[in-house]
Every structure is written in C-alpha cells, then in structure tokens.
Amino acid sequence: MYFFLNCLSLSDLCYTSTVVPKLMTDLLAERKTISFNNCMAQLFILHFLGGIEIFILTGMAYDRYVAICKPLHYVIIMSRQKCNRIIVACCTGAFVHSASQFLLTVFLPFCGPNEIDHYFCDVYPLLKLACTDTYGIGLLVIVNSGLIALVTFEILMASYFMILYTIRASPAESRAKALSTCGSHITVVVLFFVPALFIYIRPATTLPEDKVFALFYTIIAPMFNPLIYTLRNMEMKNALRRVWCHKPFLIGRQVI
Question: What pTM was estimated for this model as a whole?
Fold first, then answer.
C-alpha cells in the first residue's frame, strides 16, 4: 500500500507542477501567453502524468482487492517484483496515451484565432482553434481519453463491489476495517474520475464549466490526496495522536 502511495504522491506532485506555476503566473500577469512549443509540451506532460495517476489508482484498487479478499496469499501475489511491474505498466500505458493525444494535436493547422478559453493547453480547446474539420480527431480523443477513463472507472467500481460482496458475511469489526481501508481510495477516485469523465466522454466541444471541472482533477484531487489518505489511515491517526498528546508534556518540561 505504501509503495503505491509513494508513487501516487510523486505523480501528484509532478502533475500539479505542470499546471499550477503557469496558472499563478497568469493570475498575476496582465497578458497571458504561452508559446506553441510550451503548449504542446504541457499537453504531453499533463496527459502523461494524468495517465500515470489513473493507472496507479487502478493498481491500488487491485492491491486492496488482494489484501481484503485473499489476505493469506497477499505477500506472494503482491511481491515487490509484481509492484514494480505494475508501476512500469502504468508508465508505459500513460506514455502511449499521452503520445497519441500529442500526435493528434501537434500536426493540426492553426491559422485563425490563437486564444484558448482555458488555464492550460488541452485537446478540446486546441481542436476548437484548428482551421480544419476535427470531427474525426474528436472521436479519436473520446476513444483515447473518455473510454480509457470510463473503462478504468468501471473496473475500479467493480473491484469495490467484489470487496463488499466478499466481506458481507465477515464480523462487524472486519467489515469496518475493510471499508475504512477502501473509503479513502473511493473518495480519491470519485474526485478525480467524475470531472474527467464529464469533459472527455462527450463530443469535442468546450463549455464554460470545463475550467471548473478541470480544477478537480488537475489541482484539487491531487492536492487532497495526501490529506485524505492520512486522515483515513489508522496508523497515521495513531501516530498523530501520539505526537500531539506527547507535545504538551515536552513543553511542560521545557517550561519547568
């Protein structure tokens, strides 16, 4: 669990760093500009890191399924080699997804207006600027982004239904522990996937609400991931209680 959490935290840090610095700069600048090369680089890196996060969440769901449904075989099934292979597969899948998005966009002819109604370079706002028919490319984007997000989301939900089905006859204490373990993961999945599905599962159109929904999967969900996992994890709760309960005693000794 902590191995995947480390990878998720690293991907979150890099993912938000692709958007937040430029966003903060634009908020302070009177004229908000970005070069074509930087725009394409941001598009590629954003989808690459976003794909890694989606696939890591899927790997974490599999990890929780094995831990709860097959606890006696967990150490054998989820060996370090298996975890490393899962992370490599996540990075490979994310690279293929991002490269496809990049290649669909970079060769488009842009000869008209050069303003995008967004705070980062994404596929749909760029398709809107292209001076050619982008209907077919829009369908490919739906397949590459929307269907990947939808299928991954369905796999995640199916894994949790299987977990709930497995623990239905377990004692109340075991059910509470299993639900606590999965609760944080489900929260992260909903915060990340629902806004992403709203944007990428529909035809290639842009709406004013897109920027608000994009905030959830580019900034809010990655920012709250460490907090959500920390507060939902019993070991972290106990560690924080020990720190805060021990702190007044140490302060009292220093004062004396």
Answer: 0.85
